[in-house]
Design a protein that fits this description.
Shape: elongated
Radius of gyration: 32 Å
Distance between the termini: 41 Å
Order of helices and strands: HEHEHEHEHEHEHEHEHEHHEEEE
Structural class: alpha/beta
Number of strands: 13
Strand order of the largest sheet: 1-6-5-4-7-8-9
Largest sheet: 7 strands, mixed
Strand content: 15-25%
Length: 366
């Protein structure tokens, strides 16, 4: 029987009652204008068309005939413009001169069509919004492959994602899963696709297309939630790389048994960094710089190039920390680390490249 040490209150438990029925995919919205502003713009356009029609009729009021009193004043012009643009057309005020009829053909009729388009535009947009969204969602599912799923968009999940973006990951290759609709709205505003729901449920992860994901980052607030999400994700995708964060170090082995490839103990890591900073502030600064991607020193993994094959780890251009040979991680001072083989991968410390102006993740270090 598994025993998981709990810590704090998880966002999933906190929001479960609110979002049990709202497990859905939310694509980033392209239109950020508020609906009330869109309606106000349409109303102003309709009023402008109406006033323009009134002005045209008033300037040529001598060519119109009113069955009531044979004269057409400003009120009659407003009345005629209203019933004409709305296609009501009672026929009590009619154009009888050639010029008035020509103006109706060339100006009033196009204005009538424009007025109707403006009025029904909002309704048509509402009716077609769901169809358009379904089409976008279908295209998104069809094209989504080898993406990254981030479960939990709090401080840990956001920081992990910023690091990946700094290395070139595109925002359209990321799916955020979180139980809070407000969090997903924030993710959408930043250009990410989001899924609202409890990630411990397989149907929620399937909406995030986790079965086709390349990697899964689990950054929940509770360790028991992380275990359940890891088990579910591993069941749905046997080949994905799963990295999970836990608060308590004693829960790390359970995460690995559940299918996580790597487990980060956030509380212990922060505590060790604090202790190191007390003993040596400079060493603490270097370590903090290493774990922050994008400037200063960066730690990275790269393949061995052909010129390095057969050499010692000390003969490479970069500062090698470890050598990954197969599934074995060999420290740099281990005699078995050298000579380097073509299939090896090197964990190195390098100077971070300067940020590029067009890269989304460039300069994302915070």
């Amino acid at each position: 029987m598994f025993h998981v040490k709990l810590h704090g209150q998880d966002a999933i438990a906190r929001e479960a009652g609110e979002n049990l029925v709202s497990r859905r995919v939310q694509l980033p919205r392209r239109v950020v204008e508020k609906p009330i502003r869109q309606v106000a713009k349409r109303v102003l356009m309709a009023l402008f068309v109406l006033l323009l029609t009134v002005l045209i009729v008033y300037l040529d009021r001598g060519g119109y005939h009113d069955n009531a009193d044979d004269s057409v004043d400003l009120l009659d012009c407003i009345y005629y413009a209203t019933v004409t643009l709305s296609t009501t057309g009672y026929g009590d005020i009619v154009p009888y001169s050639d010029s008035a009829r020509l103006v109706n053909i060339l100006l009033i009729t196009p204005l009538r069509v424009l007025f109707l388009i403006i009025l029904v535009g909002t309704t048509l947009e509402v009716l077609t919004e769901k169809t358009r969204e379904e089409w976008r969602l279908g295209r998104w599912r069809k094209n989504l492959r080898e993406h990254t799923v981030v479960v939990g968009f709090g401080t840990k999940g956001r920081s992990a994602l910023l690091t990946l973006l700094a290395t070139g990951l595109r925002k359209d290759r990321v799916v955020i899963v979180d139980p809070s609709s407000k969090v997903i709205d924030t993710a959408n505003a930043e250009g990410f696709t989001g899924v609202v729901g409890d990630a411990t449920r397989s149907d929620v992860l399937l909406r995030a297309e986790v079965q086709r994901a390349r990697q899964v980052i689990i950054a929940t607030q509770r360790d028991d939630t992380a275990v359940l999400v890891t088990l579910t994700a591993r069941q749905l995708n046997r080949g994905a790389k799963i990295v999970a964060a836990v608060r308590e170090e004693e829960n790390a082995p359970l995460l690995r048994q559940s299918g996580a490839d790597a487990v980060i103990t956030s509380a212990s890591a922060a505590g060790r960094l604090l202790g190191l900073s007390v003993l040596s502030p400079s060493a603490g600064t270097v370590m903090e710089d290493l774990i922050q991607q994008g400037s200063g020193l960066d730690i990275m993994e790269r393949p061995v190039n052909k010129a390095e094959v057969g050499r010692s780890v000390r003969e490479t251009d970069d500062l090698v920390v470890s050598v990954l040979r197969g599934h074995r991680l060999i420290p740099y001072d281990d005699p078995h680390a050298s000579p380097l083989q073509l299939t090896d991968r090197l964990i190195t410390i390098v100077r971070a490249a300067p940020p590029t102006p067009r890269g989304e993740g460039a300069g994302a270090k915070e």
